[in-house]
Specification:
1 helix, 5-stranded antiparallel beta sheet
Length: about 170
């Protein structure tokens, strides 16, 4: 009986010597209610306690399905720069998950609005002289790349000219 008590005492001492630490993970941004334009770069940020690595995912349907942005990132990075997809939704969410113990933090719902583009110049119906140097300007939101085409027969046929960054607005 004394050996048994010694073993229990030894076990208690071992458990008392071990430091018990909790883990926590808190998504700071996006918190919910934001509007993030498609094709824009946004910062996902978090706080953590005793978490080594995290997985970052996003959802466009309020969490029914998830797309992984990064499988494993050191939580000590505190931020991740995300190029928001150009897919319109009013139900976007981001979540972060601890790789080892599945502690999770999911942000509130935010919006990715419809992408828009407006041609500023040349205006519809503007006739340009052949072989003259011309500029093209536009105003776009939520669009990463625009394809520029032209027509010589009032839109019956189109010829590709080039790709340009959506946010440049000038070529």
């Amino acid at each position: 009986m004394i050996n048994w008590l010694k073993k229990i005492t030894l076990l208690l001492l071992v458990f008392a010597a071990m430091e018990v630490t909790g883990q926590s993970l808190q998504l700071i941004s996006p918190a919910g209610g934001e509007t993030w334009l498609g094709a824009s770069e946004q910062t996902i940020s978090w706080n953590y306690l005793n978490v080594d690595n995290i997985q970052i995912q996003y959802s466009l349907d309020s969490g029914l399905t998830w797309v992984t942005l990064v499988d494993s990132l050191p939580s000590s990075a505190f931020t991740y720069t995300w190029k928001v997809p150009s897919i319109s939704t009013t139900n976007a969410r981001v979540r972060i998950t601890s790789i080892l113990n599945f502690t999770q933090s999911t942000g509130g719902i935010f919006t990715i609005p419809d992408p828009t583009i407006q041609l500023d110049y040349p205006n519809l119906g503007t006739q340009l002289d052949a072989a003259s140097g011309q500029y093209i300007s536009w105003n776009a939101t939520g669009i990463d790349t625009v394809g520029i085409d032209y027509s010589l027969d009032n839109g019956a046929n189109w010829t590709f000219l080039k790709y340009a960054k959506g946010y440049d607005g000038y070529t």
